[in-house]
């Protein structure tokens, strides 16, 4: 029998979260971002579950787009990071992949490619990771026109640096830079808007929005959980309780002997650790749940197991299933305890953990 350390994936919750994104996007079309193996949920099953709802997918790289085709899906797939080599452009053209062009090198590759895929042009509106500065756009567009690639250009994309912070003025500044930069080409489409932008009042989303984390139920907003925003967790991470004992007052638990019982404490060991992607930075008091009751971690997370305090769950027995995150304990809560964000926890679950779909 395999170990019952599993990530249960609720594909209906995923579909409802996508519909929430569509409602919040108003008349904007919504491409589903399924990069990084569907944020750890499994790109094939995730994309297949969204097939009847989603007009376009987005991923980081070519291999991820190929995985979508291998699942038998036919929607266009945007490559948010574009291609990493010239010959990939022909492959994009053949498979209806839409690379984002963000660098001069990618324009050079386009010049030497005998097949031109439909593309997007990335505008650097202030995040300063990738893309062309607004001053460079006219020159880039002239190059594309000379190539006769301009009729393969679908439109412009940009990405926000601070949309997770509803107090920040930067998103409005980036929006205005983007709007002015793209105004000379009103016939082309525009795409802004990660998940967070769906939760900002009066934020224009133009033709296409690009939600990722919210589809999986994670919060894109500082200080809010997914459920606070009307999102449902798509993943429940569960592992069995494999041992229980009473540690006596004054005894310690685990590596470093960092947690010491201040009274006799019934505790349990759970078969999951950082080798499964559970964050090692989650310390004592990080919440978990057993049989719907909230409990807490004690001591250090090991590679294959972690310790919990069962004081709050006196009925808990070996073999019971512990929820590390899911409907009782939100992934955003665990992320906060580990000093990170739900994105990192969800994408970090390793191949050792079986994904089960319903
Ligand atoms: C990952 C990504 C998204 C989705 O971001 P979320 O915060 O997960 O919604 C959107 N656009 C680009 C360019 C991305 O890289």
UniProtKB/TrEMBL annotation:
Reactions listed under catalytic activity: L-alanine = D-alanine
This protein's record includes keyword Secreted: no
Pathway this chain belongs to: Amino-acid biosynthesis; D-alanine biosynthesis; D-alanine from L-alanine: step 1/1
Catalytic residues in the record: 35, 255
Keywords, alphabetical: Isomerase, Pyridoxal phosphate
Described purpose of this protein according to its UniProt entry: Catalyzes the interconversion of L-alanine and D-alanine. May also act on other amino acids.
Protein name as annotated: Alanine racemase
Family label: Belongs to the alanine racemase family.
Location of N6-(pyridoxal phosphate)lysine modifications: 35
Domain Alanine racemase C-terminal: 234-358
Cofactor dependency: pyridoxal 5'-phosphate
CDD domains hit by this protein: PLPDE_III_AR_proteobact
One GO cellular component, as annotated: cytosol
The EC number(s) this enzyme carries: 5.1.1.1
Class of enzymatic activity (EC top level): isomerase
Gene Ontology BP, a term: D-alanine biosynthetic process
Gene from which this protein is expressed: alr
This protein's record includes keyword Isomerase: yes
């Amino acid at each position: 029998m395999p170990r019952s350390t599993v990530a249960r994936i609720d594909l209906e919750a995923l579909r409802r979260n996508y519909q929430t994104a569509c409602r919040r996007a108003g008349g904007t079309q919504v491409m589903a971002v399924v990069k990084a193996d569907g944020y750890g949920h499994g790109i094939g099953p995730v994309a297949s579950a969204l097939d009847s709802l989603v007009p376009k997918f987005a991923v980081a790289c070519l291999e991820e787009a190929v995985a979508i085709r291998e699942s038998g899906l036919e929607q266009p797939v945007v490559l948010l990071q574009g291609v990493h080599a010239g010959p990939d452009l022909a492959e994009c053209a053949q498979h209806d992949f839409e690379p984002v062009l963000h660098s001069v090198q990618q324009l050079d590759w386009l010049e030497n490619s005998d097949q031109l895929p439909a593309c997007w042009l990335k505008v650097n509106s202030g995040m300063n990771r990738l893309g062309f500065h607004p001053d460079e756009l006219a020159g880039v567009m002239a190059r594309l026109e000379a190539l006769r690639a301009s009729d393969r250009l679908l439109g412009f994309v940009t990405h926000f640096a601070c949309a997770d912070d509803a107090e920040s003025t930067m998103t409005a500044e980036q929006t205005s830079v983007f709007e002015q930069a793209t105004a000379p080409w009103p016939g082309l489409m525009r795409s802004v808007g990660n998940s967070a932008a769906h939760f900002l009042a009066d934020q224009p989303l133009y033709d296409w929005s690009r939600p990722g984390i919210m589809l999986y139920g994670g919060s894109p907003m500082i200080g809010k959980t997914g459920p606070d925003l009307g999102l449902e967790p798509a993943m429940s991470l569960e592992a069995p309780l494999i041992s229980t004992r009473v540690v006596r007052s004054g005894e310690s638990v685990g590596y470093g002997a960092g947690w010491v019982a201040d009274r006799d404490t019934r505790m349990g060991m759970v078969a999951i650790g950082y080798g499964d992607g559970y964050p090692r930075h989650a310390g004592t008091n990080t919440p978990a749940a057993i049989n719907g009751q909230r409990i807490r971690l004690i001591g250090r997370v090991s590679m294959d197991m972690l310790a919990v305090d069962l004081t709050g769950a006196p009925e808990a027995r070996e073999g019971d299933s512990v929820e590390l995150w899911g409907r009782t304990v939100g992934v955003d809560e665990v992320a906060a305890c580990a000093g990170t964000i739900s994105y990192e926890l969800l994408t970090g679950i390793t191949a050792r953990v079986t994904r089960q779909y319903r």
